[in-house]
Automatic annotation (TrEMBL):
SUPFAM superfamilies: P-loop containing nucleoside triphosphate hydrolases (SSF52540). GO terms for molecular function: GTP binding; GTPase activity; translation elongation factor activity. Residues 11-109 form the Tr-type G domain. GO terms for biological process: selenocysteine incorporation. Pfam families: GTP_EFTU. This is Tr-type G domain-containing protein. Gene3D superfamilies: P-loop containing nucleotide triphosphate hydrolases. It comes from Caenorhabditis latens.
């Protein structure tokens, strides 16, 4: 999905939500072109890990990375924490999201939250699995096409404080 950058000055912010170990960061890594220092949890390790294979990559931080749509629009990817206790905090902060990618197990909770916030609960759903044996490259293409079909020019209030 790379091309020359759009003439639009507004990037779209895409929240990536799901439970712990659902593959949010793996998905983000596969579609992102560039990430911040903490975008892919490189700094997050569990205390007491005896070997590198026991290292956990869970974090409470937001990870920021970017990609460019096929139309040239800059997209900011926001990899959100997946701890169940933080879903309300993530939804409260979601006012900066222009769209969201939600892992299947979280869909019901997010749909309820969207409805309560007056957001269209009938947004497109793209089936996705990054697990070995289930992942197919066309799943990423379907996701990118769904994102592309929803791109719009956001209205940002830049006159306020």
């Amino acid at each position: 999905m790379t091309s020359s950058p759009s003439t639009s000055s507004s990037a779209l912010n895409i929240g990536i939500l799901g439970h712990v170990d659902s593959g949010k960061t793996t998905l983000t890594r596969r579609i992102a072109e560039m990430g911040s220092t903490s975008a892919f949890d490189a700094h997050a390790t569990s205390s007491g890990a005896a070997t590198s294979s026991e290292v956990r990559r869970n974090t409470l931080d937001l990870g920021f990375s970017t990609m460019t749509s096929s139309s040239g629009r800059r997209l900011a990817l926001i990899d959100c924490p997946g701890h169940a206790g933080l879903i309300r905090a993530v939804l409260a902060a979601s006012t900066v999201f222009d769209m969201a990618i939600v892992i299947k197990e979280t869909t019901k909770k997010v749909s309820k939250g969207l409805k309560s916030m007056g957001v269209d609960e009938n947004s497109p759903v793209v089936e996705m699995s990054l697990a070995d044996g289930f992942f197919k490259e066309e799943m990423l293409d379907n996701l990118k096409n769904a994102i592309e079909s929803r791109i719009f020019e956001p209205k940002r209030d830049t006159d306020g404080s």
